[in-house]
Each structure stands twice: as C-alpha cells, then as structure tokens.
Amino acid sequence: MNKIMYYIVFITVNFLNAQSGAVYSRFGIGDLVNSHTAYRMGFGELGSAVIDKDYIEGYNPASWTNLEFTKLGVSARYLGTSASNNNSKVFHSNIIFSGFTIGFPIQRDLGISLAIGLIPVSALSYDISNSLNNSLFGDYKETFKGSGSLSKVFIGSSVLVPTNSSIGLAVEYYTGANKYLSYQDFASNSSFKDVSYETQYKYRGMGTTVSIISGNILDLLNKSENSNNSVLRLSALANFASDLTTDTSIVTTTSIGVTENLLGEVKTILPTKYTFGASYSWNENYLILFDYLFQPFSKYQFNGKYDTNLKDLTKYSLGFAYKDKSVRMNSTALERISYRFGFSYEETQYTFNGININQYSLHSGITIPFGDINMIDFAIMAGLRGTTENNLIKEQFINAAITLTLGELWFVREDR
Amino acid sequence: MISILIIGLISCDDNPTSLGSNLLPNQDLINVTQINSLDAAFEQKARFYNTDTLDLASSTKIFLGKNGNVESTMLMKFLFFFPDSIKKAILGDSLVLKNAFIEMQPIYTKGNTNNSFDFTVHEIAEDWNSLDFTIANLEALQFNNENVSSNHDFSNDTLITLDLNKALVENWMKLFSSETQEANYGVYFNFTNTTDKILGFPAISSAEDTRLTRLKLIVEVPNNYTDTLTAIVSSDVHVVKGKLPATNNNNIFVQGGIPIHSNLFVDVSKVPKYSIINKATLKLHVDESESEIGTIKTDYLKVALINDYELSKTNTDYSVINLELDSLSYYTGDITKYVQEWISTGNNGLKLFTADEVESLNKIAIYGSENTDLKLRPYLEIVYTSKN
Fold it and tell me: What superfamily does domain A2-408 belong to in CATH?
C-alpha cells in the first residue's frame, strides 16, 4: 500500500513538470482526452458498452449500475511523442493528471449509484523555438508555447430500467484555461529587452452526458440455449456541452512590466460527442468490445468563427479483455491479473490544406488486484499520428497510464 | 521500476526546435516593425513655458548679471571665525582694519566675454535664509542703497576683486567680537544697467572650496604685526528673473534658472494597440541661432513623462530619462518605457528641461513641431513587436 501511495505522489509531483507535445494541439481546444483511465486505455480507449462492478469512472454514467462498493479511482498518464517532418525530429514527453472519480451505490437492486469526479477533456502542450537574425535585432530567438487544459467536474447517477438496461445521466461543469505564448529572447548583450505575448482563454460552462447500456440482447431475443453465459450489450452515449463562456485576455511583458489586457468575453462552441458501442462476453471470462465515436468538429466555433483546420472526428476501437472470474480471493496475485488488448483508428479533428491527420494505435493493459476490492491498472498504447506529407508532422507516440482504484463500504445497509 | 522509467523518458526530452513552426496559425506570429515620426508623419505638437518652482538653494553656482532674456542678482554673508587673539584685539581696539576686499572667481559666463559687466554691492538690512529665498523675498528685501564696493578690477578673466567699505566690515568685526554675528546680514550684489553678460561663481554647496568667494581683511596691530585674515562666504543665494524667449523659427526652449520647460506630444497611434515597444529613440535638433549657451555646455536634457499636456503634471511612476548631446546639433536618448506607457495606458506627452537647470542659465532652442523643415522637427523612431 505504501508503494502505491509513493507512485501516486510521484506522478502528481511530476505532473508539475509537464513537457511539450505536438503543435497540432494548437487548434481548437487541444488534443482530446477520450480515455482518462488505464482501464479504458487498455482496450482501445472507449468501451462504452461495458458494465464492470469493479470500476468507477466518468466516461459513461450508465456503467455504474453494478457498483457494489464505494469506489475511488485516481489516474495519471504519461505521453511520449517523437515528432518529425522531412527535415528534423524531436522528442517530447508530458505527464498529466488524468482525473479522479468517486462513486457509491445507493440502491443496488435498482442499480442506483451516484458518482462525482474531475476528468480532463482536452490538453494543450507544444513548444517551438526559432533562432533568427536580422539587421535590427542581431541574433535572437522566437519561441511559441502552448499550455493548458480543459476539464470537467461532474456529478451523475445511474439506474436500471426494465429490460435490465442501464441509464446514466451526468451534469458537468467545464473549466480550464489555454495559454498561447509568443516570446522574443534577445542576446544578453543586446540593447533590446525580451518581450512576450501570452494570449489566454479561460473557459467555463455547463454540459450533460446522457447514456444507455442495454441489458443482455441475447436474453431479449429469447436465446434460451445461451449455455455459455454469453452477454451482448449495446450502448449509446451523447455528451453535450453548452456554449462555453470564454474570457480572453492578452498578457504582454514589456519594458514597463507585465500588463494584462482583457479582450472580452466570447463563446466557444464544443460540438456534441456521440459514442455507440457493443460488447460481447462469453464464459464470464472473455469480452470483445467495439466502439464508434463521432464528434463533428467542423461545427466547432470560437468567437463566432469556424476553424478551417478542424473537421469531424471519428474513432473506431476494437478491444479484447480476459479475466478469470473463477479464481477466488485467496488466489495468487498472478492468477487474479486480468488482461486487455485493443486497436483503434482515429480520423482526428485536425486537417491542413486538405490533408487529414489520422491516428493508429495498439493498446494493452493489465489489472492487478490487491486486498479484497482494490486494484491497480497499467496500460500502454503506441501508435502513429499524422504524416510528413506537405511538410506536416508525423508523430510516433507511446502513452502509458496508471489508475488506482480503491474500494470501501459506504452507505450500504447490510442484510441481516 | 516505473518511476525510473518515467524519469528516464522525461529526461530524454529534446530542446525545443522549429519543428511545426510552419503550422502555427497566423494569429500567433509576431512581427517586428520599424517606424519613425518623419516617414509615418506622426502628428505632434510642442509648447514652452516658464515655471517658478525651481529650488536654486542647492545650486553649486551663483549668478550675477544680465544677458538676453535673463538676469540674476545674488546675496552673500561673510561670517567671521577668527582666533580668540583677533577677537581680543578687536575688543581692545588694538586691531586696525587697513583694507577689506573681496575676491571672486568666475567659472561660468553667459554672453560674449567682451560684453560689459559691472555691479553694485549693498548692505542688507534684514535677515534672510538661503534655503527658502525666492523672487518674492528679493522684491521685499530691505537693503541700503549705498554702494559699499569700489575699485572693481575685471582685468583678470579668472579673478575679480573689489574693495568693500571698511566701516561696514569693521561693524561685522564688532559683531563677531561681541558674538552677535546673527546681525550680520551680508551684502546684496546687483548688476548695473550696462551689464550684458552673466557670470557664475562657485556657491558654498559646491566642492570648489578653493575658488569660493572670499573676503580678505588686511589688519594691523600697531607696532606689533600686520596680517591678512580671510573669511570664506558662509551663506549665499541667487535669484533669477527672466521672460519667455521669442522665436522666429517656431522653436521651443529649455533654459535653466528661470526655468523654462517645454512639453512635447507625439501621436503614436499608428503603432497598433497591444504592441510591445522594443526600442524608442527621441532626437531633438538644436537651433544654434536662437540658443544662448554659456562657457559650460549643457550635456544632457531631461525628459519626464507627464499626465497632462497643458498642466504639465509629471507622472511620478516613471523616472526621468536623459537625452545626451550628440555633437552640437541634437540631443538623443532612449524613451522606450515612455512610449510603451503611451501605447499601454495613454499618451499625454513628455516634458523637457535641462539637466543642469539649477547650475546653468543656458538657453537651448529646439526646432519645434511646426517647423517647416520636417526633418528638423522632434524625431521619434520606434521599433515594436506586434501580433497579427
């Protein structure tokens, strides 16, 4: 347990030293964070049709209906990217705290659970530096940095309805800030002082997630010969964000100090995100997942303007999970480990002069239970994004995630 | 193991490169622009005015004379700090004052050195304080109309001598011996009507101890000894009067003593809002034909940011900046902070004055904002950075 706490503290501290990533995140609100837990990263980042009593997380509120214990989940991610074009190559890494969720069952028979949490929506991070020379300034350097994130705080609930389907609803408050820095750094012997512009967008607004996960479709189809305990579920999820109020300002560093100039309040319109999924499990040990995500970023607007570098996002993910549910509490740790694999293909929201930025990735993850109802998840994904065509950037990335899930017994009256 | 892996991966982070700079949106890019008031035809205006707020008590020179638009008179006290033996001799009436004369060493001249110069000296009849003496005090000053000086000798350019009335000095000696020197009010120097130059002498606040004005007394104790006693000026002040200069060239002026200041407003609205000023250089051309410079040049002008062009109220948030005399034809200096303030907050212009305005009566004519030769007008060059 002490070691686990060490890892949590370690990752939290390193979060403060976050490094830079791809310049693609400069557009829109940044790179989207579809999966904030190691659990989902392991099978392709989505898995919207999964109901697992061992996990609590913010992606799909309908997945909370089987919750037996109070669960607390805390996650962090490592992002490592080697970016290149036809001329150069650079490696960046980044660590982000990717959220926490706490949920507890209210009425188990009715599948009523309540959860709250803080999870990331998007992340912005890049760092570009040009060494320049002109007759006026001599040698100097221009640096462009982006940093920031958008997150949401949510509170939501789930309930079972006839046909044993699960319905979930979460109300969300979006908050965060993105900063775009442009910096001139002059030589130490120059008569010019360093100057910088930092444009800041501070977001706030409400949102909602509505989702449903069906009961076992095979039962509904009266498949009485369902001898291997097969379960087929379908899911649908929609995530609506109201227009985000965005305070814009520009901070200048000049010879007379730092000045913040408020530019005004504008609207950022985030397009609705839709996810449709299916899961099929058999023999209680095996699970196959398929998901489709669609978010029409062609409708994204900032201050009433569309972004020509954004288009509709689609993502497909296919996952497989294995968990031996026949093992008992006193089994060895190795016997209790569960495994996940996945593949995903994403046509990202980014496009440049007609060339789309697509992403392919492979996923893998494991769950290591400890104690009676606690577990730690590790996941890793590796893939490619983008292209070097037309002087664009191709990224080879490897991401890793860790999620700690702790269980407690709260608010539940035990039957006597 | 995981922590070691993460540390390793982070430590591999490369330095930022230009990779991706071609993809940055136009709005992030920063542009550097050089602009100047001549080519961009900045609107500008200037005015000059006199102000009576100058504290001359700290001046290291005192001035006497009249030249051009300015005149100055001065007051001096010579208190005695002689040995007790002298005091006893005065009390015993055994000390005879044979002669009393003043030596003055000019260190500054305004006006042609060959111009006439003379003055009268008068016993002051009331006390005065050099620390707060003003024009109003001078106009109310009680003094004896009798000229107590004689034998003015201007033959030496670096030393002026004059005899002082012995009766006056003997009275000062008695006040000294009776320890009532507070009744020694000193003398008032006034220039004559024919005077057409101004001389400056070291004041007691200067470090020029050896060149301070001094009163020398030739004394004799009959049948015993003859000695020369020296009393260094112990209190001095000067008062400058003047009027605004006239100009035929649309000039503005700065001048010490009176003093005369100028305000300058340059419209920098052609620099985009939120721009960052990398460098702003102001150049002011001197019109030598209307300038009156003494034997010590004014090497620097000072500029101060002002909150109100008409009221000339100084913005105390900013320190004063020097413009340096570059050759004889113009003053120039870096006013980056001022221009940044104009862009960021608001532009009310700046105030010009000479850096040596308590030390000098130099009149410097600067080509103004309405000069027909655009190249001679105040010139402001700005290098700024702006975002798209």
Answer: Outer membrane protein transport protein (OMPP1/FadL/TodX) (2.40.160.60)
